[in-house]
Design a protein that fits this description.
Keywords: Signal. By secondary structure, the chain is α+β, with helices and mostly antiparallel strands. It contains 19 helices and 21 strands. Strands 7, 8, 14, 15, 16, 17, 18, 19 and 20 form a nine-stranded mixed beta sheet that branches. Strands 1, 2, 10, 11, 12, 13 and 21 form a seven-stranded mixed beta sheet that branches.
């Protein structure tokens, strides 16, 4: 019996599975590039642009119908006003501004706290109105937050100056980075900042119990500086302006609606992939190097030819859930903020949303529904909103029929969100082991799991760690 190589068998089998017998007779198209990039989100597209500028040929493989990952926009057909879903603002840092300038996307700067519309506060789970603070109470609260920011900046961020550069945790690993974040905050006297951290960088997980490293990562120097100053946004008001410009720049170097059928990294000098797009024969891609920018869960990449070490490390990740979207709530005027009346640091009860923020169009609101795991559906997220509206209607915060009349013109599941490991794994050196994978088997790894759920942090990781090593490997 004739023996087929593993790669040739995969090509042959995928051909039989996905195209007609007649088209199998034709040779499978082969594409040769310097770098293949799996994942066309924030990290993958940024890497592609940087490598293209360095003279490398690239090919981005994206499973969705558009690039940009969590940067999604819904434009109201009646008002023409864009509502940014997921990614709303960008840190005001040099690396962010340089990237926008490179793609020719005009920007402006805003302070979301100063420009936000006035919100009424309720506990959405109890239907309990949160009384407005008196002038004296508001002043005392602002002073407490200012003091906490000072303590946090001086005692924490100055100590962990690498926090915006990925998980470059020093050895020996500081034990305090594995503490519950509330305990860590008490140690350094910035507890008054925890409600702000939770609400502004939604959803960070349970702000009281997440390991300290994740709490700091969610509110690093770049974010804190922008929070107390200004953020960058596209001048158009549409976050996707950045990714439309990137799509134009990359052109045919992006394969959308793609399914990866096979990955072979056994060769010393290249990586082979088989990729399927709808109504097309499979494509054979041969790349000198591979970047994996898709979330590194076993569900996403478990079918790859993972090494024993890769499988061991990626199997330790767990995630929380986040559904972002736009809701039409007839009769609701003004934004509502979800404040936990009885929870530590007044964080919302989960599963739940952090509030309904006006999108700029009448009766239309941005929302983000959080879950403490990824075992949910989009219907579950919509049910959370309906339950909240029913509770709020009972106290007159929204019209009585809101839970029946609410519609969701745009909603998107962003799971797996915030890939993390346990405190024990952090203390045992998980991230040092994870970073040791870079470059092995002609593969480089990037994305939120390596940098944090923040575009600026991801681009820092690319430019500071991943791309210099990859370019050197390519001889660029």
């Amino acid at each position: 019996m004739m023996r087929l190589s593993h790669l040739r068998f995969a090509i042959w089998a995928s051909c039989l599975s996905h195209v007609t017998a007649s088209s199998c007779k034709a040779p499978i198209p082969s594409i040769e590039v310097d770098v293949a990039i799996i994942g066309g989100g924030s990290s993958g597209i940024h890497a592609a642009i940087q490598l293209k500028d360095a003279g490398a040929s690239v090919l981005v493989i994206e499973k969705k119908s558009q690039i940009g990952g969590h940067a999604e926009t819904y434009t109201n057909p009646d008002t023409g006003i864009p509502a940014n879903v997921g990614v709303v603002v960008f840190e005001d840092t040099k690396i962010v501004q340089t990237y926008f300038d490179r793609l020719g996307v005009a920007t402006t700067k805003i302070n979301p706290s100063a420009s936000a519309t006035q919100s009424k506060s309720y506990d959405f789970s109890l239907g309990f109105p949160i009384p407005a603070q008196s002038a004296a109470e508001a002043g005392a609260a602002q002073q407490a937050i200012a003091n906490a920011i000072g303590a946090y900046s001086q005692n924490v961020l100055s100590k962990y100056s690498w926090i915006d550069q990925g998980y470059l945790i020093p050895e020996p690993i500081p034990e305090e980075l594995t503490l519950p974040f509330a305990q860590f905050a008490q140690k350094y006297n910035f507890s008054a900042l925890l409600p702000v951290m939770s609400q502004f960088n939604w959803y960070p997980g349970n702000i009281s119990t997440i390991p300290a490293i994740y709490g700091i990562k969610n509110f690093g120097p770049g974010l804190l500086s922008s929070f107390t100053g200004e953020f960058i946004i596209p001048a158009s008001g549409d976050t996707r302006s950045l990714y439309r410009a990137a799509a134009t720049e990359l052109g045919d170097s992006v394969l959308l609606n793609s399914t990866i059928l096979h990955v072979d990294r056994q060769h010393k000098s290249y990586v082979s992939l088989i990729v399927q797009q709808p109504n097309q024969p499979p494509k054979h891609i041969k790349a000198r190097k591979l970047i994996v920018a898709a979330p590194q869960t076993l569900k996403n990449i478990g079918s790859f030819d993972l090494s024993t070490q890769e499988h061991k490390l990626f199997s330790k990740f767990f995630s929380i859930g986040y559904v972002a979207g736009v809701a039409n709530i007839p009769g609701l005027n003004g934004s509502l903020l979800n404040v936990g009346a009885l929870t530590p640091y007044n964080t919302p009860v989960i599963p739940g949303s952090n509030g309904y923020q006006s999108s700029g169009s009448p009766n239309q609101f941005l929302l983000g529904v959080a879950f403490d795991n990824s075992d949910y559906t989009q219907a579950d997220a919509e049910a959370v909103i309906r339950r909240e509206l029913q509770t709020l209607a009972a106290v007159g915060a929204v019209p009585a029929d809101s839970s029946q009349k609410v519609t969701f013109p745009y909603i998107s599941d962003h799971a797996p969100f915030n890939l993390r490991v346990s405190s024990n794994e952090i203390g045992a050196g998980f991230y040092n082991e994870l970073l040791s994978l870079e470059g092995s088997r002609n593969t480089y790894w990037t994305g939120a799991a390596f940098a944090g759920h923040n575009s600026g942090l991801i681009w820092n990781w690319n430019e500071g760690t991943v791309l210099p090593a990859l370019k050197k490997d390519l001889g660029l």
